[in-house]
Amino acid sequence: xxxxxxxxxxxxxxxxxxxxxxxxxxxxxxxxxxxxxxxxxxxxxxxxxxxxxxxxxxxxxxxxxxxxxxxxxxxxxxxxxxxxxxxxxxxxxxxxxxxxxxxxxxxxxxxxxxxxxxxxxxxxxxxxxxxxxxxxxxxxxxxxxxxxxxxxxxxxxxxxxxxxxxxxxxxxxxxxxxxxxxxxxxxxxxxxxxxxxxxxxxxxxxxxxxxxxxxxxxxxxxxxxxxxxxxxxxxxxxxxxxxxxxxxxxxxxxxxxxxxxxxxxxxxxxxxxxxxxxxxxxxxxxxxxxxxxxxxxxxxxxxxxxxxxxxxxxxxxxxxxxxxxxxxxxxxxxxxxxxxxxxxxxxxxxxxxxxxxxxxxxxxxxxxxxxxxxxxxxxxxxxxxxxxxxxxxxxxxxxxxxxxxxxxxxxxxxxxxxxxxxxxxxxxxxxxxxxxx
Length: 437
What we know:
This protein is of the alpha/beta class. Helices cover 46% and strands 15% of the residues. It has a 4-stranded mixed sheet with strand order 1-4-5-13, sandwiched between helices. The chain has a 4-stranded antiparallel sheet with strand order 6-9-11-7. Strands 10-8-12 form a 3-stranded antiparallel sheet. Helix 1 packs parallel to helix 3 and helix 5 packs parallel to helix 11 (249-260). The longest helix has 18 residues, at 211-228.
């Protein structure tokens, strides 16, 4: 077989056999098939899709392209959570210690920011010394000792995905449902999980803007998990406006600390508890989501969740002083205000505009090699449905670089729209997909 033959067949709407897909992924990972041919294949898949059998083999081939974690010797069920990416989405940071404090093992593999969406690893690394890169042996040792690891994908874990992900980003093929599903699930299944909870974002600040698209993505990933014997639950959640109040790396750590103290924004707290409850039931430490929520609330009110975060931070080389005193986190030099031009109700707080604006300030990367400024970002003071008076602060723009501010400011000042009639608040959790049995 040749790569050209397979590209042409998929281009014309044909199907690939299991052996052909295994050969394609293996040869690309090894460097035998060049980027330009795999780019053509990705575009063919983007246009033509993959059927269920093709997708299963494609995911399996990516999963077995490198190292797979072996965690079965560690007692307890292992459950992870994954978000498809959003603006202000720091949920993993308070979620992991909350759930870990309740007894579920969490081998969490997180990612870096992509475009306007923030990355958990970038946020965690604003804590001085916090380490996110581990060998498989180190990862297992940390999980056994502390019950939670907040790490990143190693060079040897699913290397096919590492190469394909970068290529998709450069070839306009990121939004393809089969490619998103196989990318996420190959990495998660390589963690040797017993269960997985997915937060599938929908709306302006998400890669999936329509509910039907997001539902198909969620159903696809649930099906992949079922075929592998791993239970998967997915929540479709609203990403038309930022999550919480903070968009920026250091400020989102501060907001995560507030949440672990029971003082976080209402939407962050509600979604963290909803995802955490699913993880506790899946981890067999609670029999219902109501029981699980009560366990999470107790872990927060008793201080056990915050103590677990400090334990994880210390174990991963981080300076816990910033957790006790968040004022030690980086701060931007300058602040500008976005104010309401008229009195009324917030009709729009555009997640995409805020996310892109924050990225242009330096909170995210426009190119893979860009550095991140942990201090800059946006504080959202008014969200959809809120009543505001003329001159009230809608948002605070924190910046260090005047050129970056000049580029970002027009987007951010136009991110809010005020209506002269009441606007209902946004629905946060849209739908639940999947079952425990």
